Amino acid sequence: MAYWLVKSEPSVWSWDQQVAKGAKGEAWTGVRNFTARQNLVNMKKGDKAFFYHSNEGKEIVGIAEIIKEAYPDPTDKTGKFVCVDIKADKPLKTPVTMAAIKAEKKLADMALVKYSRLSVQPVTAEEWKLVCKMGGV
């Protein structure tokens, strides 16, 4: 299993909206960056992803699961981009803020810190364990 982080502005798509979709999940559409696109292509069914509220909140609020691997994004008229389907797995007991992540020396190399604009990012197993611990799960 691999670990990822997906970003969404809560005013556009929030953790609560993701949870409301239940077991059928929702397509993670609208990614228009080629590095993020490649990360979507690399996702496998069963992988886990942190759900990060960007801009508003700037915090990891939950864990999602990839339930369908990459397929053509129906919102992309160019045909160049893909999406995956994700479902909410569980919320973090305590959201992990960007400030808390930046304060943790062991997370200094985390993609979220180094590539703050990238909407879909890989997370190492060590980073995953530490952020889960920080979030109380």
UniProtKB/TrEMBL annotation:
<protein>
    <submittedName>
        <fullName>EVE domain-containing protein</fullName>
    </submittedName>
</protein>
<dbReference type="InterPro" id="IPR052181">
    <property type="entry name" value="5hmC_binding"/>
</dbReference>
<dbReference type="InterPro" id="IPR015947">
    <property type="entry name" value="PUA-like_sf"/>
</dbReference>
<dbReference type="Pfam" id="PF01878">
    <property type="entry name" value="EVE"/>
</dbReference>
<feature type="domain" description="EVE">
    <location>
        <begin position="2"/>
        <end position="134"/>
    </location>
</feature>
<dbReference type="InterPro" id="IPR002740">
    <property type="entry name" value="EVE_domain"/>
</dbReference>
<dbReference type="InterPro" id="IPR047197">
    <property type="entry name" value="THYN1-like_EVE"/>
</dbReference>
